């Protein structure tokens, strides 16, 4: 699904879903997601068997008890927790095989992050992510957002370039070579501008819509809790009940009113950002400051206030998926000018230069 724009360009809703776009955005979202996935997988290192194996904290007996059918004579009996499948279950009690699967999973995600054999490693990466999510002892709410990103990236790279007549037979099997993250950084003069793709657009649109639903649902869910209406929701994470002493509270008594006022203002702004997210997520210009700035502030808040290190990077990646290829190139140019790196030309400029070369050659 790559190359060759149609003679009549789609507009409106058709353009939203079916207009071909540069693969630059998809490749960079894949790279950032891969970095987060690698860090997530490495966080289990040293305790991977305790977290993920059938002989760990959540062992075979726990699986049996968790999946036991509810007692029909007890209406208040909890519903069994569905347990997913995992490649780590294949190892059983074989520690050597389990470690091979664990480090092999990291290698697969690393290859996908670098853009090598993306048609195959994309599918395997999704299998790896689902396997890490299967064990209730190690899963957390934010982890399932990684499963969503891995799923859509798998679909996108499975289709990317598949109907492009310019691919080599090996690329049809492994995926297009332009996905390799170092292809242009290594000075490949023949790389040119990134190709355009229908599947890249469809994949990014699915990520954008799903992420917008998650953000607005999260905001509406907060409105069901009295603490968010009262403006004191951020007070409790900053004052953990098991860590805050009476002396500390007495010291803050003089500034408590001012502190609560600022905390309530911050949380109302956060609520407004989440609930109004679809209204500005697809807008360009200065709205990008609201989009990306809100994601960065939310990252810092999740890390330092709520103690949730994974939510922030995922939210930032979700917001970055709304940027266009030209906006990504402007960001790369800004960083290049600040750190002395040579930035690639924007997609439109590169395409114009390519057209001039073709005309000149005639």
Overview of this protein structure:
The protein is mostly helical. It has a domain at 1-215. It is 60% helix and 1% strand. It has 18 helices and 2 strands. The protein has a two-stranded antiparallel sheet. α2 packs across α7 and α9 (198-222) packs antiparallel against α13 (256-275). 27% of the residues are buried.
Main β-sheet: number of strands, strand sense, barrel status?
2 strands, antiparallel
Number of E-type strands: 2
Strand portion: under 5%
Task: Strand order, main sheet: write it out.
Answer: 1-2
Helix content: 55-70%
Instruction: Write down the overall mean pLDDT.
Output: 82
State the shape: globular
Care to give the gist of this entry?
The protein is mainly α and 362 residues long. The protein has helices spanning 12-18, 24-42, 48-52, 60-66, 95-114, 118-133, 143-159, 169-174, 198-222, 226-230, 235-238, 246-251, 256-275, 277-280, 287-304, 311-320, 325-339, 347-361, and strands spanning 21-22, 196-197.
Helix-strand blueprint:
Elements: H1 12-18, E1 21-22, H2 24-42, H3 48-52, H4 60-66, H5 95-114, H6 118-133, H7 143-159, H8 169-174, E2 196-197, H9 198-222, H10 226-230, H11 235-238, H12 246-251, H13 256-275, H14 277-280, H15 287-304, H16 311-320, H17 325-339, H18 347-361
Antiparallel strand pairs: 1-2
Helix pairs in contact: 2-5, 2-7, 2-16, 5-6, 6-7, 7-9, 9-13, 15-16
Distinctive features:
single chain; two-stranded antiparallel ribbon; disordered N terminus; globular; 2 strands; mainly alpha; 362 residues; 18 helices; 60% helix
């Amino acid at each position: 699904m790559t190359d060759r724009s149609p003679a009549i360009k789609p507009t409106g809703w058709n353009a939203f879903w079916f207009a071909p776009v540069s693969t630059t955005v998809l490749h960079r979202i894949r790279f950032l997601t891969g970095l987060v996935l690698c860090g997530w997988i490495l966080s289990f290192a040293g305790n991977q068997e305790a977290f993920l194996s059938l002989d760990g904290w959540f062992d075979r007996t726990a699986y049996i008890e968790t999946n036991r059918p509810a007692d029909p004579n007890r209406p208040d009996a909890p519903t069994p927790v569905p347990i997913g499948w995992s490649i780590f279950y294949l190892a059983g009690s074989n520690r050597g095989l389990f470690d091979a699967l664990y480090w092999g999973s990291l290698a697969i995600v690393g290859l996908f992050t670098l853009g090598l054999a993306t048609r195959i490693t994309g599918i395997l990466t999704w299998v790896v992510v689902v396997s890490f999510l299967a064990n209730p002892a190690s899963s957390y709410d934010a982890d399932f957002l990684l499963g969503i990103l891995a799923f859509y990236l798998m679909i996108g790279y499975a289709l990317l370039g598949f109907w492009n007549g310019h691919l080599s037979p090996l690329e049809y099997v492994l995926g297009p070579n332009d996905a390799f993250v170092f292809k242009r950084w290594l000075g490949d003069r023949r790389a040119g501008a990134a190709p355009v793709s229908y599947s890249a657009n469809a994949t990014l649109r699915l990520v954008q819509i799903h992420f917008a639903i998650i953000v607005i649902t999260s905001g509406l869910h907060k409105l069901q809790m009295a603490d968010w209406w009262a403006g004191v929701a951020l007070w409790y994470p900053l004052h953990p009940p098991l860590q805050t002493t009476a002396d500390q509270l007495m010291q803050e008594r003089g500034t408590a009113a001012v502190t609560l006022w600022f905390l309530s203002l911050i949380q109302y702004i956060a609520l407004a950002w989440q609930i109004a997210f679809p209204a500005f997520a697809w807008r360009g210009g200065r709205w990008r400051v609201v989009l990306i700035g809100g994601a960065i502030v939310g990252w810092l808040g999740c890390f330092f206030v709520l103690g949730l290190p994974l939510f922030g990077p995922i939210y930032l990646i979700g917001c970055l998926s709304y940027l266009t290829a030209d906006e990504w190139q402007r960001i790369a140019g800004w960083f290049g000018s600040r750190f002395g790196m040579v930035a690639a030309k924007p997609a439109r400029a590169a395409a114009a230069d390519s057209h001039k070369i073709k005309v000149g050659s005639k």
